[in-house]
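Hey, I was hoping to borrow your eyes for a little while. For a while now I've been wondering how a particular protein folds. The fold is given in discrete form, as structure tokens running alongside the sequence. Could you read through the record and tell me how the tokens relate to the sequence? Take your time with it, there's no hurry, and the full record follows here:
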Amino acid sequence: MTQRDGTSAMPEDSRAHFPTGDEPTFGRRLSTAVAGPALWVALQLERGRRDSILILRVEGGQRTTTTIDSQGFCHQPAIATLPNGNAVVAWNEARQAGGWAIRCAFLDAATGVVCREETVHAGPAWCLPPAVTVDGRDVWLAWPQREESGQRIHMTRRSSTSWQQTEVVSETDADAFRPSLASANGRVFLAWDCYREGTYSLSVRDIASPGPTTRLSPPASQRWLNPRLLVGPGDAVHATWTVIEDVMDDRGIADHAVSAPVMTLTAFPGAQVAGNEPAAVADMRDGLLATDACPYRGYAGLRRNPQLTMTDDGHLWCCWESRFGSDETSTAGHLLGRSLSHAGVWGEQCILHSGGYAYSVPPHWPTDGLPVAFLHADSAGLDIVQSSVVDDVQPHARTAPPERWQRWQVKDLRLPEREQRSGHDEEMQQVFWADTHCHSEISSDAEGHIDELIHFARDVAGLDAVCIVDNDYYPHKALSSAEWQMAQEFARRCTEEGRFIVLPGWEYTYHRRDLVPSFNHRVVMYPRPGWPLFRRTDPQARCESDLLQQLQKTPAVCYPHHCSYEIIDNRFERSVEVCSSWRVCLEESDFTMGQLRDGHRLGFIGSSDSHRAVPGLGGALTGIIAADLTPEALFAAYRNRQTIATQGHRVNIDFRINHAITGGEITVDSAPQISAYVRAPKPIEFIELIRDGACLRRWEPAGDEEKICCDDDCPPGEYVYFLRVKLVGDPSLNVSSAESYLGPFKRSGRYPHNLARARGPFAWTSPIWVTRR
């Protein structure tokens, strides 16, 4: 297919690393609808820390833009059109005075401006993004809302001039997410995904029918989420959704194979699946699941977001977007699609549009061309939001041979029982396992819904604590005020003291022109929600020292990552990430050892920095030596540097010098007395006692645990000690330590880009600082 806009890819430039602070930023999820020849587009916009909904109307090459200012922090909009050509847009909103609301606005077809705004619902309960559909003159809305008993789908209808009373329409035995609405000829259909018994499944309802909700349950190896509905001729209900299957390759990297089926549901109520278990129509592995020729790379669009659209004459299309090949830019993707013939045969996969990202297609479109909306990096201001019409339906085939992914096998990634939460016994200290650097789709180049990542961390990776940390800014995507409110709500609702902790946080994505590489990022975490967000685009936090000045008024913990960094204030920056899915920094460079020799007192943290929706299985963990599994106890341990960094295995190392434990400081008058008890989930290759960067003693145990004890008759002075443990197995490094390479990663490495072995062999205690008089 050809595109009429002539857009092309643009390499990333300094806007990514050195923003001015005046840039508009946009949500990644666009919503589109058509009315006759007009295309309507809605998306979240933030400028100058003011939230609004941006509406774009395009007809005959003419663009009209309208912004709807928020009464609070507006989040994700959904748009639909009415029979008279007008449009209705609905969104969820965190209110300035507290509580949440579902709001909507009606827009005039002739001018594109707002006719009226209405509050559909307001109250203290947390509301997630809504879905909207129009049937005749009725407007239907559905949204997830958090109740004391769980998260339920609420629904209402506007007929004539008023909204009906809201009803709860989802089941009471599962938390419900991501609704989709579709309607035709007086019938309205609703689907959503829900989390029960450790997996995601789908539910579908014919709203007019009093019959039961239809449940679509995946095979044991899959998770089904993000449904999309479309009603076609004869009231046929077509559905697609995202299928996620956990896989692992021969190098021990954990990931997901992602696809989307398309099904036709019949015989409501109690709808049945037409035919056998649905086969994949959209194979989303291309560019998303690594091959030897093309490793995984970040992409500013949404690669796990299938969409359905239909021509006026009834041709059904399944569309999705991808980034593939060896191109360097993360902001020039492709809209792919397959069409279903009237004979029921799916056509070839083809490229519909190239050069944009965050693609959206309307549910129905005229036969003379498919209108698409997307974001385009080679633009500025509101012109970043673009549209095009795809005509000349001659498929440019894009097929990826399945054998490219032969190295990946379906794998149950849940930990064996003996490797799960360590807890403690009479012999060992109590350790809780955390991954506090995990990106979601709120970041401009990462995958996964926040709830999906939290459930994976808890129920698959078996973590005790997690922090979803999204970038504060990358073009053209900021962590908006509304998204920060959403992230805090997830932390509030998903924390269960004594079982599982979700910490609110973000990544301060700062770059310095005087550093090579320029990275000087920080992970910032709070123990509980209710504290402010400080971004590098905000006037009060334009550099690291400004950030730290703001954070000193809060209970935050922050730490740098990457293989090189600049410590600004060691009183506040008390730890550093030494291992992630990008690099095993403590093994691959001597930068952090140099920081310790220079007098910085830094604890060690392992956190995955995963962009691939595998929190806890991204090749790095932190063992937190804490009294209790509460946010306050974990933060006390972080501040005291009571941490163990590992490459993904749960290696409990009880390291002491005299009466000082891991992360501590001690003054002695005689030879330091060093002891440790190491317990690992697999055989230990060696244990090394490191003093001032050099190996002082080495032990080679025969099994998976070892007790060691020794003295170090060192001369008077100040010393830094820690333990370095290696289990039997492949070191799983990105680059050789001999290179002492300080960049974020090497694409030519054995574990390139964001790929890391889920459970590598190294573990390190935070140091103990000893002064011998």
